[in-house]
From TrEMBL:
Database matches in SUPFAM superfamilies: Cytochrome P450
One Pfam family hit: p450
One function term, GO molecular function aspect: monooxygenase activity
InterPro entries: Cyt_P450 (IPR001128), Cyt_P450_B (IPR002397), Cyt_P450_CS (IPR017972), Cyt_P450_sf (IPR036396)
Protein name per its UniProtKB record: Cytochrome P450
C-alpha cells in the first residue's frame, strides 16, 4: 500500500473526483484499489442494488496488523457481524436495534440530553477567548450523547471514544509494531468493558440501547453464549464508531467551512431559521463519510463500465454531492440551497440510521454558537489540516477565537 499517495487522496479527494467524472465510465483508482464511482446517478444506483453490490468488505482495512497486534486482538470479545458490512437477512437483523433505538418515538428524551450537554459545553467555551473546537466540542459532545443513548456510565465514555479512534488507526494507518500492539490491547480492553455492559443488561434490563441490542441479537433468557456476546459487542463498537466518529467529523467540518465562508456564518447569525438548511448543505458540501466499498457478486455493469464478479467499487458519497449534473455550483457552500436528495448520510438499505441524531446535534450546536459566539473566527495563525481518512473526514484541529463577554457587560 502506497500510503503517501493514499494520504494525498484522502486529505483532499475532490480534485480526484472531478477528474474521474470527466472520464467515460468508471475510473480505477490505484490508491483505493477500487473502481471509483463519482457521478450522482451511478452512486445512487449502486446503493440501490444490494443484490448486485455486496457490502461485505465495506470497511476493508488498508493496513494489516502484525502478529503482536493480532495476538492482542485475539484476547478480545468481538468478531461478530455488523450491519455496515452485511447483506440481506443478516443486515436486517443487525440493523433492527439501531432503527428501533434511534426511532422518532424515543427521540424527545435524547433531544433534551443534547440541549443540556451542548449548553454546558458552550458555557465553558464562552468563559474563554478561544479553543480548539475539535477537542473541546466536536469530539466531546457526540461522545457524551452516544454514551447517553447506549446507557454507558459517563466515566466510561472517554475510553470508549478513544477506542473508536484507535480501531480506525489500527485498520487504516501504517503504525509501528509497538503502537499497533498498544492500540490492539486497548481495543480488546474496551471490548471486555462492552461485554460487561452486555452481560449486565442481560441480568438487569434498562431502557437503553445496550439492552435493545441484547434483546434483538440474543432473544430469550439465561446466559449468553460467546457467539452472542461477540455479536452484541461488535454491533455496539460499530455504533460507537458510527454514532461518534462520523458525527464528530461532520460537526468539525461544518464549523470549519462556515467560518471559512464568513458570509455564510453571518447569514446564520442573522437568520437562525436557516440553520436546518445549513446542516443539510454542510453534509452535502463535505460528507463526513466519503464513501464505502462494495463488491460485485456477479458479472454486471455500472456507469457504462463492465465489472466482473468480485470487482470492488468505491461508492463515493462525497463525489456524488459535488456532481454538477445534480447540484448547481456544487463546489460553493450556500446555506440557502436546500440540497434535496444529497447522499451525505448515505442512501438505500444502508442509509445512516443515526442521521436524525447527527442532525439534532449539529442544529443545536449551530443555534448555540451563532447566538452566543457570533464573533467567532478561525485563528489566523493556525494551519488547517484534514485527517487522512475516508470514513470520518474532519480537520485534525480547529483553532477558533472570539471575544469573551466580560462580567458586567451586556
Amino acid at each position: 500500500m502506497d500510503f503517501a499517495a493514499l494520504d494525498a487522496v484522502q486529505r483532499d479527494p475532490y480534485p480526484h473526483y472531478a477528474r474521474a467524472r470527466r472520464q467515460l465510465g468508471l475510473t480505477f483508482a490505484t490508491e483505493l484499489d477500487a473502481w471509483l464511482v463519482t457521478r450522482y446517478a451511478d452512486v445512487r444506483e449502486a446503493l440501490a442494488r444490494p443484490e448486485d453490490f455486496s457490502s461485505a468488505g465495506a470497511l476493508r482495512p488498508d493496513a494489516v496488523p502484525g502478529p503482536r497486534a493480532r495476538a492482542e486482538l485475539a484476547a478480545g470479545i468481538g468478531a461478530g457481524g455488523v450491519a455496515l458490512s452485511s447483506d440481506g437477512a443478516a443486515h436486517r437483523r443487525y440493523r433492527e436495534p439501531h432503527t428501533r433505538g434511534l426511532s422518532a418515538a424515543r427521540f424527545a428524551s435524547v433531544q433534551d440530553a443534547i440541549s443540556e450537554r451542548t449548553a454546558r459545553i458552550v458555557d465553558g467555551l464562552a468563559a474563554e477567548d478561544g479553543a480548539d473546537l475539535v477537542e473541546r466540542l466536536a469530539r466531546r459532545l457526540p461522545g457524551e450523547v452516544i454514551g447517553h443513548v447506549l446507557g454507558l456510565d459517563p466515566q466510561d465514555v472517554p475510553a470508549a471514544v478513544r477506542g473508536g479512534y484507535l480501531a480506525t488507526e489500527l485498520a487504516f494507518r501504517p503504525l509501528e509494531e509497538d503502537d499497533q500492539a498498544a492500540a490492539a490491547r486497548e481495543i480488546a480492553q474496551q471490548q471486555h468493558r462492552m461485554d460487561d455492559y452486555v452481560r449486565s443488561r442481560r441480568a438487569e434490563p434498562r431502557d437503553d440501547l445496550v439492552t435493545g441490542f441484547v434483546h434483538a441479537l440474543a432473544p430469550g433468557e439465561g446466559g449468553l453464549t460467546r457467539e452472542q456476546r461477540g455479536e452484541c459487542v461488535s454491533s455496539l463498537q460499530n455504533l460507537l464508531l458510527a454514532g461518534h466518529l462520523t458525527t464528530s467529523a461532520l460537526m468539525a467540518s461544518t464549523l470549519l467551512h462556515l467560518l471559512r465562508h464568513r458570509e455564510q456564518w453571518e447569514a446564520l447569525c442573522a437568520h437562525p431559521e436557516l440553520i436546518p438548511d445549513a446542516v443539510e448543505e454542510c453534509a452535502r458540501f463535505d460528507a463526513p463519510i466519503q464513501g464505502f466499498r462494495r463488491r460485485a457478486v456477479r458479472d454486471t455493469a455500472l456507469g457504462g463500465t463492465a465489472l466482473p464478479e468480485g470487482a470492488v467499487v468505491f461508492v463515493s458519497f462525497g463525489a456524488a454531492n459535488r456532481d454538477p449534473a445534480r447540484f448547481s455550483r456544487p463546489d460553493r457552500l450556500d446555506v440557502t440551497r436546500r440540497p434535496q436528495g444529497h447522499v451525505g448520510f448515505g442512501h438505500g438499505v444502508h442509509a445512516c440510521p443515526g442521521a436524525r441524531l447527527a442532525r439534532a446535534q449539529l442544529t443545536t450546536v449551530l443555534d448555540e454558537l451563532t447566538r452566543r459566539l457570533p464573533n467567532a473566527r478561525l485563528d489566523p495563525g493556525s494551519r488547517i489540516r484534514m485527517l487522512p481518512t475516508m470514513i470520518h473526514r474532519s480537520p485534525e484541529r480547529l483553532d477558533v477565537r472570539w471575544q469573551r463577554r466580560r462580567p458586567g457587560l451586556p
